[in-house]
From TrEMBL:
Domain X-Prolyl dipeptidyl aminopeptidase PepX N-terminal: 1-157
Main EC class the enzyme belongs to: hydrolase
Keyword Nucleus found: no
Species lineage: Bacteria, Bacillati, Bacillota, Bacilli, Lactobacillales
Secreted listed as a keyword: no
This protein's name: Xaa-Pro dipeptidyl-peptidase
Provenance organism: Limosilactobacillus frumenti DSM 13145
Amino acid sequence: MHIHQFSICQTSTEQQIKELQQLHLLRGNEANQLDPNQMWLTFLTRVNTASQEPIAIRQWLHDLLATADQAVDDWLADDEPLTTDIFYRVAFQLLQYEPAVDFHLDQPFMDWTRIGLPYRQYTTWTTADVIDAFYLLLNTRNKNGQIYLDQLTSEGFLAWTYKLPADQKPLFFNGKPVACFDPAQFIREVVYIETDLDTDFDGHADLVKAEIMRPVDTEHGLKVPAVFTASPYNQGTNDEWGDISTHHVNHPLIHKDPNYHAPTEMTFPAKSKHQLVAGHSKEATESFATTPAYTLNNYLAVRGYAIVYAAGIGTKDSDGLQTCGSPEQTDSMKAVVEWLHGDRRAFTDRHSGIEIDAWWCNGNVAMTGRSYLGTLSTAVATTGVAGLKAIISEAAISSWYDYYRENGLVRAAGGFQGEDADTLADETFSRTKRPADYKRIEATYQKYAQQMAKAMDRATGNYNAFWDARNYRKYIKGIKCAVMMVHGLNDTNVKPSNVKALYDGLQQLPVTSKLILHQGQHIYINAFQSLDFSEMVNLWLANKLWGLDNDADRRLPNVLVQDNVSAEKWTAYDHWTGASRRWYLSGNQLTNNPVANQDTQSFDDEQPVDKYKAWCQSPAKWQRALMKDNGQFSRHFTSAPVSHELLLRGTPTLTIKVASSLDHGLLSAELVDLGAAQRLTTSPVLINRGGLQLGFHWATDDLREFKQQKKTTAAKVISSGHINLQNRHSAGQVDELAANQMVTVSFDLQPIFHRLVKGHRLGLIIYGTDYEFTLRGNEAVKYTLDVNDAQLTIQ
């Protein structure tokens, strides 16, 4: 087990005492009156959340070991001086670590440092030392993935703070608000925010439903920041529709006409009629019982952040059509931020005209969420909308073309062969959940969906006006808020190219950006045991939304990367890209020097029918066969075993000459780490279901962590890429291609941040059809490679 904490602030002795007094852990002049042992005993007594009765305290102390064989109360009776080992032996027990399982009773401090927990070490402990060490202990993560203060809070330690006057909240501890807001008293309300859009062609401005959960303290004068999650899934999904509209992929590529242009999608009215205001109210007329929630938002809610969810246009209880990433969808979510900031109006219901303000909001907004949710956070940020101070963009798309297409090819998001923009629109068009409302809009939506299917152009896979409208990278320069990006290096759904492009663009701007790269696929990381992600977010938002001067930007790493070799290891870096590296293709090798006058190499893409069908049904079987292929349908190039560890950072690019035996074709490539190893599990392992307490009598989360696999594997794919041979200059430009015409292609594979350990080899596999991601035509096509001057770079 190894714990990493990046959210702990350096705090002066005076500030520590002030904050401990604020939490009632220090009282009066105890810091000057008590000796070290008395101070330590006082702290231990006050953190017993079960009872403050003397008999309960005695039993509590009698069940904690001060030495390897002596309870705290017995040890105190001997009046021996406090030592570092005694302090941290007891601290381990307070933090729910188990003797003989997580630490040794005879050497607790050594185990404390081995696990990576923060510490203080003193030769002779003074009262000031005890205060300093216990303050740090309150900020130390326990075995169940929360800092000790949050553990105490989940046991009711801060329940008394619920009754504090609103003007005394929030309480801050170590630069972060604590959970001093009563979840049982949260106000849940619904408002309808008026946009400037008319995406359902009814002549009226579309209304967007927002669900709000805020502290009751806002009713008594406290203004709080808002954390907004834009989720088109929030009001329900049409899974059956998605199945029906999934496209067939078992058909060949076509030869593309360079002069072909796809039809454009439907345009929406430029003007719409706005509601007449019939009055104002401070109270919403509608509420809600529950809503699909992000557990990070639940963590933040009891710390004083209002939580807002909206599904946007084309969803249940809102107006408009579902447009899958279009500027209109962005604007519908931007409208929510504008209302929270005080720049747009909303109504208490859909028809009365009674206006309601976000009077309880301090005007500062952050956006959170993963995948589509993080995508819309990024999209709204590019508008530069006032009030948006920060986004936490997890596994987010920065260009929808890079989600459903690649270099002139239709390319699936991992695990969703045949899904496309129209499929996702159908799945999230939750106005179907109101049957009468759907009947009124059915014909309009079907007309739009049919036009969308043509405009997105699965026939060619080219970059066109449809995808250009969904390319947020063009507007990165418009971002004015701080950005925290979180992405999985093994995410085959929203691939790392999406976050790398956003990260690169942000480096040119005068805004704060933070990047966290983990070893997962398409997941959240806020419930990891090894990393204080939730506390990092709380620290960051305290600075961005509450305006607290807590040095968050300097304290949090610019780039934080989870290691791919050792479990529970996170390393801070200044930048993603490192030193440029280059290899040349020679025979079946990757070499450091070019080799001239090499023969061409070839492979066939066609497979026997039985094998083709089996691979279509189970692409994992194809991947295993690809790794073992001896040249029948791919070519393999391998480096010599590396003599020392290599850290591969950046974007791999393959440049090579290739010919297809037909007048169309594609080329694919995978980068592979070759070497027997017990690699990390592909998904986090469940450690404690419901074990992560997010507050007192409040929500929970499942504690998880990547672990070392028990079985040894021979290789791991670390990157891949694909290109249509007719799009060798750009995804939007089609070039002619004749059968057997040798052309040069240069294309990027997915960005990496990978540690290649000593003795491992780097492998490059070049092939045609990718059964996991590309169309699968099984054509009788032969690909020929001219490897003279072919090279692989990472930079």
